[in-house]
Amino acid sequence: MLKSKKLLLFLSVSCLLEADNASSLLFNGNCLTCHHETKTVSAPSMVELRSRYLSVFSKKEDFVNYMSAWVEHPNAKTSIMQDAIKKHALMPDLGFDKEVLRDISTYIYETDFKKRGGLY
Ligand code: HEC
Questions:
Q1: Hey, which of 24, 34, 65 would you mutate to test ligand 1's pocket, going by the most ligand atoms within 8 Å of its Cβ?
Q2: In whole numbers, what is the pLDDT of the chain averaged over residues?
Q3: Which of 32, 51, 78, 101 is deepest in the core (most CB within 10 A)?
């Protein structure tokens, strides 16, 4: 009895980890080509982007709703980073799926890119 409970706990923990890894892969595959983690090259870095969004949307729900809707159809009028548009031009509409963008935005909200120690 005790053993099966432990197994269940283990299974749910590994599911959580997998969900997190999936969002991380989606993010890495779709966004990192332009948005490096700490360096601003052809687009604002993730550190900059995340802190700008956090300063406007401190609640996770607002952050995720706004970011996923914006990235689905980038629009200069609703951008909160007008200076970035002037510098790099508007982000292209890349036809991402809304649900995928919600996962990616949640991942961005939860990730401290300064501490991630990635390759970029
Ligand atoms: C082809 C290059 C490219 C890719 C790929 C890309 N971006 Fe961008 N993105 C940009 C550029 C350039 C800007 C800066 C100009 C702007 O804000 O439109 C930007 C700006 C943004 C902004 C700021 C929005 C604002 O308020 O102005 C967000 C959020 C964002 N990107 C999220 C993402 C996410 C999430 C992904 C992956 C799903 C992604 N981007 C993939 C080029 C890209």
A1: 34
A2: 88
A3: 101
